């Protein structure tokens, strides 16, 4: 016989029956009365009834269990933490026995030499934290050409709910940065983090340097179809000296890059170039970052397909000019990308015959930015081809004109300034 009672604001339904005084077992369903509907959990509880007959619900005394603190695991001392020997195999073997939902806490100052890759496949809810360095060691001699090209420090495929907090990754690139020679096609995919179809990850306060590839690559899991990564956050920290892109977003839905410092990049700072039409980027926020030198563009979005939408670039500060156009989004013919919003940024344009920003077949809003142009180059601030654009309230200091558009573009332009005090 089921009974209902309200216990500490929770609806409880007792499903057990006690027919004599004393202790007995009852299954009690607890439901929080929330909208759009109650959420319930069934608890098997021991209850005491000192009377006769069925258990009166008003005498049930129970409490929903609170969240269980995550178990904390520390690597054993048998895994060398002074950087003198390769510990990839030992660390991977130990991590395989750490349960999902746990926190991995590293000894402060520990240095782990990683000659191969730390691999996490289909893991859930792991947190990595501590003042710890993962330093890429020499490339193993037995690698194939493909393995050498893709030898990242952290390789995450599937799974989700990860957190990486306060760690440091040092790659093996001896001369990463803006020089021509910093790019090496045989090692261009040696990333700090390689994420494939990861369903939730936060990387915060992390330092990444000296990698041949991207600091962070966010792409799809291709084991069964095309599964995009989702809910990716990179917050704070610093990334410097590499051989390819800063942060590559090629198959992701829901991503925030906020408060990161990025310097000395061989190619683009932010890259959004889907490899195929089934890849793309949606619901992306690039907010409040500070950037230095990059050999190519600041934000580059070309590649395949039209699955690039709801992208916001806001409140970023460029300390040094990059390649031009510094903001570049070009969709393939036959479709459009966007909406894209570029607002409240402080930017610097290098001199070029190209416009400072270029949008082809894009729905875009450019507003309230401060951009400094070299005055003698007579540059166009925003160039449009078959685009739908609003350009409003910007200070394009030193530019010759705010907008240059072809006849197919639909443009709303107002309150832009070319001469700044």
Describe the structure.
- By secondary structure, the chain is mostly beta strands.
- The chain contains two helices and 40 strands.
- The strands form five sheets. A 13-stranded parallel β-sheet has the order 5-7-10-13-16-19-22-25-28-31-34-37-40, with no helix packed on it. It has an eleven-stranded parallel β-sheet with strand order 9-12-15-18-21-24-27-30-33-36-39.
- The N and C termini lie far apart (81 Å).
- The model is unreliable at 1-66 (pLDDT under 50).
Question: Layout of helices and strands, plus pairs?
Answer:
Layout: E1 3-7, E2 10-14, E3 22-32, E4 39-49, E5 72-73, E6 82-86, H1 88-96, E7 103-105, E8 111-114, E9 118-121, E10 127-129, E11 133-136, H2 145-149, E12 154-157, E13 160-165, E14 168-170, E15 193-196, E16 199-204, E17 207-211, E18 216-219, E19 229-235, E20 238-242, E21 247-249, E22 251-258, E23 261-263, E24 270-271, E25 280-287, E26 290-291, E27 299-301, E28 308-314, E29 317-318, E30 327-330, E31 337-343, E32 346-348, E33 357-360, E34 362-367, E35 370-372, E36 380-385, E37 388-392, E38 395-397, E39 401-405, E40 410-414
Parallel strand pairs: 5-7, 6-8, 7-10, 8-11, 9-12, 10-13, 11-14, 12-15, 13-16, 14-17, 15-18, 16-19, 17-20, 18-21, 19-22, 20-23, 21-24, 22-25, 23-26, 24-27, 25-28, 26-29, 27-30, 28-31, 30-33, 31-34, 32-35, 33-36, 34-37, 35-38, 36-39, 37-40
Antiparallel strand pairs: 1-2, 2-3, 3-4
């Amino acid at each position: 016989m089921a009974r209902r009672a309200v216990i500490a604001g929770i609806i409880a339904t007792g499903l057990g029956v006690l027919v004599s005084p004393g202790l007995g077992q009852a299954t009690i369903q607890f439901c929080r009365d929330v909208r759009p509907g109650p959420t319930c959990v069934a608890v098997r509880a021991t209850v005491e009834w000192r009377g006769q007959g069925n258990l009166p619900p008003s005498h049930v005394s129970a409490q929903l269990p609170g969240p269980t603190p995550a178990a904390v695991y520390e690597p054993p001392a048998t895994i060398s933490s002074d950087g003198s020997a390769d510990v990839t195999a030992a660390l991977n073997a130990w991590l395989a026995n750490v349960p999902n939902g746990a926190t991995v806490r590293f000894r402060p100052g520990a240095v782990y030499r990683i000659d191969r890759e730390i691999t996490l496949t289909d893991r859930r809810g792991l947190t990595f934290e501590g003042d710890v360095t993962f330093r890429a060691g020499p490339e193993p001699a037995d690698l194939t050409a493909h393995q050498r090209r893709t030898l990242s420090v952290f390789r995450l495929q599937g799974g989700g709910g990860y957190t990486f907090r306060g760690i440091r990754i040092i790659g093996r690139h001896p001369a990463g940065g803006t020089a021509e020679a910093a790019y090496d096609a045989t090692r261009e995919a040696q990333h700090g983090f390689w994420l494939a179809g990861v369903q939730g990850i936060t990387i915060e306060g992390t330092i990444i340097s000296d990698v041949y590839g991207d600091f962070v690559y966010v792409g799809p899991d291709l084991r069964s179809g095309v599964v995009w990564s989702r809910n990716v956050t990179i917050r704070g920290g610093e990334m410097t000296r590499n051989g390819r892109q800063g942060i590559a977003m090629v198959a992701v839905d829901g991503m925030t890059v906020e408060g990161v410092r990025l310097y000395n990049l061989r190619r683009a700072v932010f890259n959004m170039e889907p490899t195929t039409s089934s890849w793309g980027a949606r619901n992306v926020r690039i907010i409040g970052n500070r950037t230095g030198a990059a050999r190519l563009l600041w934000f580059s979005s070309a590649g395949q397909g039209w699955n690039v939408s709801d992208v916001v670039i806001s409140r970023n500060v460029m300390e040094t000019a990059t390649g031009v156009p510094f903001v570049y989004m070009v969709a393939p013919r036959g479709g459009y990308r966007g909406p894209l919003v570029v607002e409240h940024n402080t930017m610097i344009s290098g001199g070029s015959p190209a416009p400072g920003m270029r949008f082809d077949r894009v729905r875009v809003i450019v507003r309230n930015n401060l951009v400094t142009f070299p005055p003698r180059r007579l540059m166009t601030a925003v160039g449009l081809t078959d685009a739908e654009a609003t350009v409003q309230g910007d200070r394009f200091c030193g530019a010759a004109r705010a907008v240059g558009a072809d006849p197919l573009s639909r443009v709303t332009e107002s309150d832009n300034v070319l001469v700044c005090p």
